[in-house]
Design goal:
Blueprint (H helix, E strand, L loop, with lengths): L7 E4 L3 H12 L5 E4 L3 H10 L6 E2 L3 H6 L6 E4 L5 H13 L5 E4 L5 H12 L4 E8 L1 H7 L2 E4 L3 H14 L2 E2 L2 E2 L9 H31 L3 H11 L7 H11 L9 H4 L9 H12 L4 H13 L2 H7 L14 H34 L5 H7 L10 H11 L10 H24 L4 H14 L5 H12 L12 E3 L10 E3 L2
Parallel strand pairs: 1-2, 1-4, 2-3, 4-5, 5-6
Antiparallel strand pairs: 6-7, 8-9, 10-11
Helix pairs in contact: 1-6, 8-12, 8-13, 8-15, 9-10, 12-13, 13-19, 15-18, 15-19, 16-17
The structure holds nicotinamide 8-bromo-adenine dinucleotide phosphate.
């Protein structure tokens, strides 16, 4: 058996696990034990990176023996049954006070379940969202750990040592207890879906409205990346649009099949929001847009359905592009505001204390939605920690006021031209809905009371009321059911 020389271990050495292990090993003070189900990946990692000083292990017993107490292990395996299998093994060889971290993309109810089950053994279980893909894992991801305060004492310095850094601050915070970390990571991914869809709609509108080539539109995005839209996703959009396919000489974006894939985190975000009663329409439309794109059989039979007459061409390309930029920024504010609403609602539902400002700060580097914009969110929550709706913070309210006329012109142009812009238009509808003095929800309540006696409340007195709708309706008074 090896001596307990490692302060941290990684189980699962595919691309994410091996990169995370290398990141850990590169930081002063860390010695990293590694274990994989099949031996080949461990041998390869250790042979390729002698500088890392890994402690290779080939059984769970050896792995446990190589770790100093409290033993701390990060699991990086495919989320699901593999995670449960690895947890079972670690629980078998670990002791009370040790720490098991799941760094995979687990669905947060699974994390809640696992945390409760593992806690009964006296071992700590931490679900940690890790964002940034392969490169982030290697160079510095944004890390969203949940779990107990006790585990954070040991884990905090280790995760801080490998996290991305934004303006001198590490992109990791103890998000909250239980499944809070994976919940926040889930919403991060949902926001990512919305951000990507909004950018895609902006590209489509500009291309079809101005006739610019992908390479020319790449320059538009590169220019946008110097202003308030500055973000990783805008930056890589310019790179993707510039890319020429080596085989055909065409823009690569025109060669790629237009069916967007998904690994499910967008759907989880929307399902959870539905259960919590939080409208995340931007994220939902982005998720549905991927679904719509991925049904070629439906798209083929619907292709002959008529659209508007004539070609779509804007008179003033520069003015239209500026309108699209403002519409994109306004829609992005709505999508992020909705995502933060979902985190707040999740925290209330599950009893977590989550600092929304701290969450926005750890997304400023290392993760896919990293953006200058997140500083504005942090400022908004610093000014008012209990802000009921992010989009009402002074900075965002001003940006929406500045952009709303352009936003409306873009949504109208898209509708008239027959260009789908579901995320732009649903975000605008949300904006108009949330700011409305009075909504037709009153009529919906009347309908519900009519067919189901669901009752309603009145604007002029307290209580719950039901109307006897049948018979001579003009003479039937509302009945207080209390
Ligand atoms: P995979 O998701 O492909 O996981 C496979 C690895 O887990 C293999 O090395 C496999 O061993 C090992 N494993 C062990 Br140990 N026990 C296992 C078991 N009982 N069942 C199945 N596999 C087992 O690795 P990945 O792409 O590196 O992703 C790791 C996690 O990180 C996932 O949860 C993923 O969602 C998450 N994540 C990925 C990204 C990304 O950008 N790729 C970003 C953020 C998070 P073997 O060699 O014997 O098959």
């Amino acid at each position: 058996m090896p001596t307990a020389s490692a302060n941290i271990g990684v189980v699962g050495l595919a691309v994410m696990g091996s990169n995370l292990a290398r990141n850990l090993a590169s930081r002063e003070g860390n010695t990293v034990a590694v274990l994989n189900r099949s031996r080949a990946k461990t041998d390869e990692l250790v042979a390729l990176h002698p500088e890392a000083g890994f402690v290779p292990t080939f059984s769970y017993e050896e792995f446990a023996a190589s770790l100093q107490k409290p033993r701390t292990a990060i699991i990086m395996v495919k989320a699901g049954l593999g995670t449960d299998a690895v947890i079972d093994e670690l629980v078998r060889v670990f002791e009370p006070g040790d720490i098991i971290v799941d760094g995979g993309n687990a669905y947060f109810p699974d994390t809640i379940r696992r945390e409760q089950a593992v806690r009964e053994t006296g071992i700590n279980f931490v679900g940690a969202g890790i964002s940034g893909g392969e490169e982030g894992a290697l160079l510095g991801p944004s890390i969203m750990p949940g779990g107990s305060d006790e585990s954070w004492v040991t884990l905090g310095p280790i995760l801080t040592s490998i996290a991305a850094v934004a303006e001198g601050e590490p992109c990791v915070t103890h998000v909250g207890h239980g499944g809070a970390g994976h919940f926040v990571k889930m919403v991060h991914n949902g926001i990512e879906y919305a951000d990507m869809q909004l950018i895609a709609e902006a590209y489509d509108l500009i291309r079809r409205g101005t006739g610019k080539t992908p390479a020319e539109i790449a320059e538009v995005f590169a220019e946008w990346n110097t202003g308030e839209l500055e973000s990783y996703l805008i930056e890589i959009t310019a790179e993707v649009l510039r890319q020429i396919d080596a085989e055909t000489g065409k823009p690569l974006v025109d060669v790629i099949v237009d069916q967007a894939g998904a690994k499910g985190t967008g759907a989880w975000t929307v399902q959870t929001a539905l259960a919590l009663g939080v409208p995340v329409s931007g994220i939902a439309e982005a998720t549905f847009a991927r679904s719509l794109s991925s049904h070629p059989e439906q798209r083929a039979v619907a292709a002959h359905l008529p659209g508007p007459e004539g070609e779509f061409a804007v008179d003033d390309a520069d003015a239209f592009i500026e309108d699209v930029r403002l519409a994109l920024y306004a829609s992005k504010i709505v999508a992020y505001s909705q995502g933060f609403d979902e985190i707040r609602a999740g925290a209330v539902e599950y009893g977590w204390t989550i600092d929304l400002g701290a969450v926005s700060k750890i997304w400023r580097a290392g993760c896919i939605i990293r953006a200058q914009f997140l500083n504005r969110i942090a400022e908004a929550y610093a000014g008012e920690p209990d802000l009921p709706a992010l989009l009402t913070a002074p900075y965002f309210a001003e940006a929406l006021a500045r952009g709303q006329a352009a936003w409306r012109r873009v949504v109208v142009a898209a509708a008239q031209a027959g260009i789908p812009a579901p995320a732009f238009s649903s975000s605008l509808s949300y904006y108009d809905g949330i700011r409305a003095e009075r909504l037709p929800a009153a009529l919906v309540q009347g309908q519900r009371d009519f067919f189901g006696a669901h009752t309603y409340r009145r604007i002029d007195k307290d209580g719950t009321f039901h109307t006897l709708w049948s018979g001579d309706r003009t003479e039937i008074p509302a009945v207080d059911t209390h």
